[in-house]
Sequence to fold (289 residues):
Amino acid sequence: MKKGASTLAMLLTFISAIGQNAEMADQFRSSGKIYVVVGVVVLIFAVLFAYLLYMDYRLRKIEKEVDEK
Amino acid sequence: MKKLPLSFKIITIILVFYTLTAGLLIDVPALNILNETIRNLFFHVTSWFSMVFLFLASFVYSIKHLRSGSEKDDLLARLFVQVGMVFGTAGMVTGMLWANFTWGSYWVPDPKLNGAAIAMLAYLAYAVLRNSFQDNIQRGKVSAVYNIFAFVMMILFVFILPRMTDSLHPGNGGNPAFSGYDLDNTMRMVFYPATIGWIFLGLWITELRFRMETIKQRMK
Fold:
């Protein structure tokens, strides 16, 4: 039964893939607002990476201090 | 593991930002059920790939530790598992979210999902095993042997068994894999850099952890 269900799901996905009229976020893209999302994501990751680099820098300072001792 | 150069870290940042922007903006095939969620390929799948790579690194360092007995190799094996688990958890949580919207439930009885869960538990057991030793040498040896076993289990449960039965995941049980309908050439242009980017990020975080642990030991 389970096997049959997953085979059916598989088949449906495959058939619908040929259909190719799936709903996409076209309107959101044409109105340009997807760039807002990209902007938010980029900002968040920029902060995260800045923090990662800062940790790297702090660690290097500690390493230097220990080396000098 | 040598200290990673700054250029490596800059490449990581470039690759990840490329993934985030191109991953959301490029044209993807319009497929029913999946719709825009097909973009999860750049984030969910690559997260798992990063975990597999980190576990592979841990596996290599465990073998190295058995050959050399060096504490450094044992430490690296441990840290690679720890960071790998972070990426694995991310892969699992994002996968559950994705499954809820495409397969209709947070968890479906799919061999790949259950296999991934078993693999994660096997690595969780590695952490438990490590903590159950008093003696460093014994801990290193036994954990290294177990880690080799855990890696083989992971490959078996995540990559081999799901291929032998029906699975909802692409590339398993007769489903077309990446070469099929779901990964066209524009998606490849993001997918491969994304995979490298997330793997590099994992290596970078592991390097930071390694340096922290090394400093801690030197301060004693």
Summary: Chain B is about 75% helix and 0% strand. Residues 6-219 of chain B form one domain.
